[in-house]
Design a protein that fits this description.
The complex is a heterodimer of chains A (387) and B (731). Chain A has 387 residues and is mainly beta. Chain A contains two helices and 23 strands. Chain A has one domain: Beta Barrel (AttH-like fold). In chain A, strand 12 and strand 13 form a beta hairpin. By secondary structure, chain B is of the alpha+beta class. Chain B is elongated, with a radius of gyration of 32 Å.
Chain lengths: 387, 731
């Protein structure tokens, strides 16, 4: 009798379990954009960067079809004007605007107006430094019908646009929750990274990209946030890079710094990490002098030491505070996130946020900048960004 | 967001090709399928467009990721590569997702889309900036019209399911009373030991609840599995007739499961009440088998039955909705079912008298003593058989009507269509001037803004003669139609709108509203929504559209249909023209028809099976109750074999009685379905005729055979009992 009851109970539980399983959950699944393939291995038919070819302007501002990937990257720190008697009302923000282009293996459906040669992605993010809030918005478009593109005059994805006006750029993005409108005027010349723009990232000569920056632009404009319009001014940084299969396959990710020091110098450093977390010999940097002098740094010229990590809700540890030593230039810096929670929660996993630069001795703030951390989350080992 | 949405045929399945830009509304598509997959859609695999499907669709196709799949759409076919599975909800079932650029390329239709999805609030912009011919529709409206379209079908299936439930209740009753009879002795003892009435009632209701819950659980599992199979049966007709895509699997909700569970428990409690009343009447400690009370006599039931019949007729007469017809039929059936036990047992007595002295005769007479126990089973069996036969008759009758209609209508020798959809004026001219063509008919359909379908007909006399007229004088109607002064209506359209001959119909033509009187109404089984027919000259003038959808060629007596095929092929090099003979159309129509009604056959079978279970359990109960009598027969020298034969004769006899009563009921059901339900559900009438006898000829021997087989189990149980034990249990 007891055994019967157990058997019946088991059958009933099985039936219930099956019915519950069978309910229409309507669940949808989403996976992140794994761009390892896009950044490390490109099919044969793509062009490769194999040596210094020099840069030409304005033509190199436009997109470079034939290469696997390319990006246009603005970051910066902005402040509202100080009112004479009340400094407490000053607001400070970090911003990022990025346009990515991923070329497709072959042009899809050539006999259609929808034929796309590339997939475009735009990221815009705003860090409200006082309230420690991070806003981000992502857009995708096919490279067809003029939905997205980059010419010498204009870079755009739908109505997010960057228009070149003389030597300056006018940035317009409306992300719904916030909208940013900025005029960006270069204060320093275009800096060719690496060897005349040839930035080698791995053992193979083809593991490289073309890379140039404008390390200091004055930024001025307006932000709309929470129904308020705030006038802002500050400094921005432009990074431009293109190539195919620039990543060495053994790399886990990178840490990238773009720092603008109060003494007028700008420092770019990147550390490529292998799967064990060691810095690759192809890590590099550039110290830009007050007047735009280039000082190329290779891996042996600087040291990067993570000091503190931040654990996000997924349990991923992000190194958000660093100690930097550039012995040859007598630079010793502490870099720390203006606030920790600046992780991108889009299709791509990375941390990109505003940082403060301090003097390790006096703890006085001596600069600001942006930090990018990639390859820390387990979801996808390698993510999109510069390297 | 631009979209191409097309019906396509892939292997044996009808799918919907959904071509879109996966990145144009990132929130909708790219996030639900994942950007990697969305990106993968853009680049071709080899030179085939990559396609995404849901897991369920993949299983339906019997394909695997990486396979190539040939899709065909109106004669044009192309291959896609199955690139991945979309883990989306069932909204993508039976759909195949590809990139819009790839679709335009594969279909050779650059710049062509079937629809645009616009966000809320863009209606004004669309009306201002896009061509006037565009029809816009909210998602809500689209869902509504899909719902309306399948309303008739759903109502019919719901009614069938309710009938299955009602038959099921008879089974529950039989089983419960079987359990009660089996433990009569125990109940008596328990009562003698001091178990109160209320404690006994709690016990009986408690175990009923547990049993019902377990049964419901099993039923839900089997029902869900069955639903998936039945879904496969309706999938093809739903796609063919309504242009709607059914899900790949049934999608039950927790609410539905809960509602069924509660309904079953309630129904079981209701059915348990009479059984409980009987159990409570068992006197404590007495083992006397009280004979169940007598059945209500026919004289008392007849007025009730007649009253129910009258109510149903009044309801049907006053309310012209489908639900009234279904409800009325339900009431009428209840009334008829009430009469079955008294009539059945009178018949049983009569038959028993026909075989005096034989074992069968005795067996049957024994049954009349157990009428109360057997009455529900007999009623259920009779109802189920009547439903099966009645539905079968309706389906066959309707099939014959459709067959007749198609055969009458298709008078041309060959029908020509273009795989691209329409035949342009130049091609029309070349086709109709081919050697041997005497005259031709043509049709061009178009949907007006408010979803009314209009067909422009060119109808020579020979084509006109194929129509079957429901209202209007055909001769006068032809003159008025040809002059462009009047329109024709298909029967479902006339019924849906309530229009009759000479009523004005207003047509929203591009040049403005135009009102024309109805000249005649013709029979049509082609569309439940119905349509308005106008003559081709009026159509061309109104819509400025010289193309046609299809052409019927009427050949000279001397010309041969085979030769015309070759000449048509020569016209366009076999590129786009498709021709088909009336016989092929007829075969295809009937094939669609048969697929449509497969589910009705399946449901009818199901009800029959449930009724047979009721019969078996009723006989088991009766056998237990009569155990002492059977034991006496054994003691008197009846061998177990002979006893088994006796019990089998009883089931066979009961089935025969149920059949005799079911046949007239089946004819009533046939006529109600044909004359009442069909017009209300689908909008068309079926010409009246004698009921087809096929189903009776099939069901009668089949039911007798199965009924006899169903008696074997009780026969084996009853014959196997040691007689001495049952003899000893004397009062």
């Amino acid at each position: 009798m007891k055994r019967d009851a157990i058997v019946i109970g088991l059958c009933a539980s099985l039936a219930i379990a099956w019915l519950v399983h069978r309910l229409d959950s309507g669940a949808t699944q989403s996976s992140g954009l794994s761009s390892t393939a896009l950044l490390s291995a490109a099919p044969e038919n793509f062009k490769r960067v194999t040596g210094p070819e020099g840069l030409q302007f304005p033509s190199d501002h436009a997109m470079h079809p034939g290469f696997r990937n390319e990006w246009w990257y603005f970051t910066g720190n902005l402040e509202s004007p100080v009112s004479e008697n009340d400094t407490s009302k000053q607001r400070r923000f970090g911003f990022q605007f990025t346009l990515f282009r991923f070329a497709l293996d072959s042009q899809s459906a050539p006999s259609s107006d929808f034929a796309a040669d590339a997939l475009w992605m735009a990221h815009v993010a705003l860090s409200d430094l006082d309230n420690q809030r991070f806003y981000s918005r992502e857009r995708l478009a096919r490279g067809a019908l003029g939905l997205a593109g980059a010419t010498t005059r204009q870079w755009w994805l739908k109505d997010w646009t960057v228009v070149r006006v003389g030597d300056a750029w006018q940035l317009e993005t409306d992300a719904g929750e916030f909208a940013l409108s900025l005029i960006l005027i270069p204060e320093k010349p275009i800096i060719a990274q690496g060897n005349q723009g040839y930035s080698r990232k791995g053992r193979e000569p083809g593991n490289a990209s073309m890379y140039y920056s404008i390390s200091r632009l004055s930024a001025e404009g307006r932000l709309r946030l929470d129904g308020q319009t705030i006038d802002l001014a500050g400094l921005a940084w432009l990074d431009r890079e293109w190539g195919s299969s620039q990543l060495d396959p053994g790399l886990a990710g990178w840490d990238w710094f773009a720092l603008q020091l109060d003494d007028g110098r700008d420092l770019m450093l990147y550390r490529l990490r292998d799967l064990e977390g060691r810095a690759s010999a192809y890590s590099a940097g550039m110290l830009v002098g007050v007047d735009g002098q280039r000082n190329v740094l290779d891996a042996s010229d600087f040291q990067l030491l993570p000091v503190r990590t931040w654990r996000d809700a997924d349990g991923v540890e992000w190194p958000v505070a660093w100690r930097i030593e550039v012995a040859g230039f007598d630079l010793s810096l502490e870099v720390e996130a203006s606030f920790d929670a600046q992780r991108w929660r889009g299709l791509v996993d990375y941390w990109e946020g505003a940082v403060l630069v301090r003097n390790p001795g006096t703890q006085a703030t001596i600069g600001r900048g942006y930090l990018e951390l990639s390859g820390y989350s387990n979801r996808n080992q390698t993510t999109v960004g510069r390297n | 967001m631009p979209i191409i949405r097309l019906p396509v045929q892939a292997r044996t399945l009808r799918l919907e090709l959904l071509a879109l830009d996966p990145f144009s509304t990132i929130s909708v598509v790219a996030t639900s399928i994942g950007p990697t997959r969305a990106g993968a859609l853009l680049g071709p695999v080899g030179d085939r467009p990559p396609a995404l499907v849901s897991q369920a669709t993949l299983e339906l196709l019997g394909a695997e990721i990486g396979d190539f799949l040939t899709l065909s759409h109106s004669g044009r076919s192309f291959e896609v590569a199955l690139a991945g599975v979309v883990a989306a909800s069932q909204s993508l079932d039976r759909r195949i997702l590809i990139d819009i650029g790839q679709a335009q390329q594969a279909l050779g239709l650059n710049g062509w889309v079937t629809e645009l999805l616009a966000p809320d609030g863009y209606q004004h912009w669309i009306e201002k900036n896009l061509p006037k011919e565009l029809v816009w529709q909210t998602t809500e409206q689209r869902r509504d019209s899909a719902r309306q379209l399948t309303e008739g079908m759903r109502a019919n299936l719901t009614a069938m399911s309710l009938l299955a439930l009602a038959t099921g209740l008879f089974v529950v009753y039989s089983v419960l009373s079987f359990l009660m009879v089996q433990r009569r002795r125990m109940f008596g003892l328990l009562r003698a030991l001091g178990l109160s009435h209320s404690a006994l009632a709690r016990m009986v209701l408690g175990e009923t609840l547990v049993l019902a819950a377990l049964g419901a659980l099993a039923g839900l599992v089997i029902g869900t599995l069955l639903a998936d199979r039945l879904l496969a049966l309706v999938a093809a007709p739903v796609a063919e007739i309504y242009g709607q895509l059914p899900l790949a699997r049934s999608s039950p909700s927790a609410g539905l499961y809960a509602a069924i569970l509660v309904a079953v428990l309630l129904a079981a409690m209701v059915v348990a009440v009479p059984v409980l009343r009987e159990a409570l009447k068992i006197p404590p400690g007495r083992l006397l088998r009280r004979l169940p009370a007598r059945l209500m006599p026919l004289a008392q039931l007849l007025p009730l039955s007649i009253a129910l019949g009258l109510v149903s007729m009044v309801w049907i007469a006053l309310d012209d909705r489908l639900v009234a017809a279904l409800g009325g039929l339900f009431l009428l059936l209840i009334g008829l079912v009430l009469l079955i036990p008294p009539l059945g047992f009178s018949l049983l007595g009569l038959i028993a008298r026909l075989f005096p002295g034989t074992l069968a005769g005795r067996g049957l007479r024994l049954l009349t003593a157990a009428r109360k126990r057997l009455a529900p089973a007999m009623a259920a069996l009779s109802l189920a058989l009547a439903l099966a036969m009645g539905m079968g008759m309706m389906i066959l009758g309707f099939r014959a009507a459709v067959d007749q209609w198609v055969e009458n209508l298709l008078r041309a020798d060959v029908y020509v269509q273009a795989s691209g959809g329409s035949i342009g004026p130049d091609m029309i001219n070349r086709i109709t001037t081919l050697d041997g063509v005497e005259t031709f008919s043509s049709v061009r359909s178009r949907r007006l803004v408010e979803a009314t379908q209009v067909a422009g007909y060119r109808l020579p006399q020979r084509a006109w003669d194929g129509f079957s007229w429901i209202a209007g004088n055909p001769k006068q109607a032809r003159a008025r139609f040809e002059s462009g002064q009047a329109v024709l209506l298909s029967e479902p359209f006339a019924r849906r709108t309530g229009l009759s001959v000479d009523d004005p119909v207003s047509l929203a033509l591009p040049g403005g509203e135009k009102a024309l009187p109805v000249a005649a109404i013709f029979r049509d089984y082609g569309s439940e929504r119905g349509f308005i027919a106008i003559n081709d000259r009026l159509y061309r003038a109104a819509f400025n559209d010289p193309a046609v959808d299809s052409i019927g060629l009427y050949l000279k007596a001397s010309a041969d249909a085979e030769g015309i095929g070759a000449r048509l092929q020569a016209l366009d090099g076999g590129e786009s023209l498709v021709w088909i003979t009336p016989r092929q159309i007829r075969e295809q129509s009937l094939a669609i028809f048969d697929r449509t009604f497969r589910i009705s056959w399946a449901l009818a079978m199901l009800i029959g099976v449930i009724a047979l279970i009721a019969l078996t359990s009723a006989l088991l109960a009766q056998g237990l109750e009569r155990a002492r009598e059977y034991a006496t027969l054994r003691a008197l020298g009846l061998s177990p074999m002979r006893l088994a034969g006796l019990v089998t004769a009883q089931t066979a006899g009961l089935t025969a009685i149920a059949l005799i009563l079911a046949v007239p009921m089946a004819i009533i059901i046939h006529y109600s379905l044909t004359l009442l339900i069909q017009p209300r559900a689908f909008g068309w009438t079926v010409p009246s005729s004698l009921p087809p006898m096929g189903p009776i000829l099939v069901v009668v021997p089949l039911a007798l055979l199965i009924g006899t087989l169903a008696g074997l189990y009780p026969a084996w149980r009853i014959a196997g009992r040691p007689p001495i034990r049952y003899l000893r249990a004397a009062p």
